[in-house]
Each structure stands twice: as C-alpha cells, then as structure tokens.
Known about the structure:
The protein is α/β, with parallel strands linked by helices. It has helices at residues 4-23, 52-60, 109-123, 140-151, 163-169, and strands spanning 48-49, 65-68, 90-92, 97-98, 130-134, 156-160, 175-177.
Amino acid sequence: xxxxxxxxxxxxxxxxxxxxxQEGVPEPDGYRTDNYRAPVPATLAGxxxxxxxxxxxxxxxxxxxxxxxLPRAPKPKNLPAGTVWRDRPRFDIPGSIWLPDTGYGxxxxxxxxxxxxxxxxxxxxxxxxxLVFYCLTDCWMSWNAAKRALSFGYAxxxxxxxGTDGWxxxxxxxxxxxxxxxxxx
Length: 185
C-alpha cells in the first residue's frame, strides 16, 4: 500500500510528466494531416502562442479577430426521406468568425479559397490585422490554420491552443455561433 505522502509525490510526478509531454511535441515542417486531436506543440514559428489570460485581454480590448476552425459535423448520408436534420450548436468566443473545416492539413481548392476569403473579410483586407486562431484543446486544426494564415502573408497571427475548452474552463462567456456561409451554399 502506498502512503498518502508517496501517493502525492507520484501524482505530482504524473502531472509534471504529462505537462512536459506537450513541450516535447515538435513542430512539423508542414501541416498536420492526421490524428488532429492529439497533444500539440508549445510553439508555432512566426505566430504568438496565447494563454487564456492573454487571449482574454485581446478579446476584452477588441484587439484582434478571433477565428474558430472547428469542423462542422456533416449531415449524415442516407437519412430517411423527411428526416429533420439539426446541426449541433457550436458555442464560440463571442464575436468570433467560424470558418469550419479550414484547419485540415490538406485543403481542397474550394476550402482554401473559403479560408482566404474568410480571412480577407475578417481582416478588412489588412494583412497586418491581428488574427487569433483557435479550436479545442489539443486540436491541430487551429495550429494548421494559423500556420496557413502565415503562409498567406498575414503578419500578426496568434494561436490560442486551449480554444473554447480553456475559455469555458476559465468561466469566460461563450455565444452560439453559425459558420460563415460558403459561396456554394
């Protein structure tokens, strides 16, 4: 049987090892193309990485545009005729722009165009506008989308890796969101 003190030491060690695991995740050279819900790097070359407190400060100061890239659940195929389909609600950081499906490692030309147009709209055509990308905790999609924005020439890119999970955990407000319409919708 483990004593209470030894149990606390083991628990503390597990937390340290778990926290350190994220720091050990290297940035890939390109985009992450699979296993999107996995530990993410602590960095993104060319971008600022934000804590919840830093993201909140930007949000409260209205100092940047928040971009959510969480995928939208697709309508199931082969639903019986007459079945009513209702999307699951998405709750975002208030004032965010939701550009679903734009954080995959490989994007179809139409999805990449949707991202480019969405960012141009969000930034008012200013490639120096501050853009804050997020999704969920341990979600590579926000990392990919922020990296892609850098490749598009955006100069003030921030990545909030804790996403709506961290935001909600901090008891900050969330608001129901709808995705930005696609040109083909």
